[in-house]
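pipeline stage [seq->struct] | target=MRG domain-containing protein | organism=Aureobasidium uvarum | residues=117
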Amino acid sequence: MPDSLKAILVDDWEKVTRENRLVPLPSKTPVAQFLADYSASEGAKRREGSAEADILEEVIAGVKEYFNKSIGRILLYRFERPQWSDIHAQLNKGTGDLTGKLPTDIYGVEHLCRLFG
């Protein structure tokens, strides 16, 4: 991971753990949108139906799945867990603004960076 992203992760950690600030949710740039943009950009460089294109698609699907499964377990700081509990309850309720959404539709790239940090 580049040093510039590591510095951003340190700033993120300080804001959440020391200043008790939460990232506003839903994110303006959710993980799903970021990965879709990345897929479109990288997919244009690969021949459709090629092994490279298939691998890109599988990796992105895997990152989404891993993110959705790990957000509540390993990607949040203690201060963020009550916010996750509220969102998780809304996702499971099946009514309201979050109906049919996944964590990748709500959380942003700052949380995605934690996955790789």
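stage status: PASS
auto-comment: The two ends are 7 Å apart (CA to CA). The chain has six helices and no strands.
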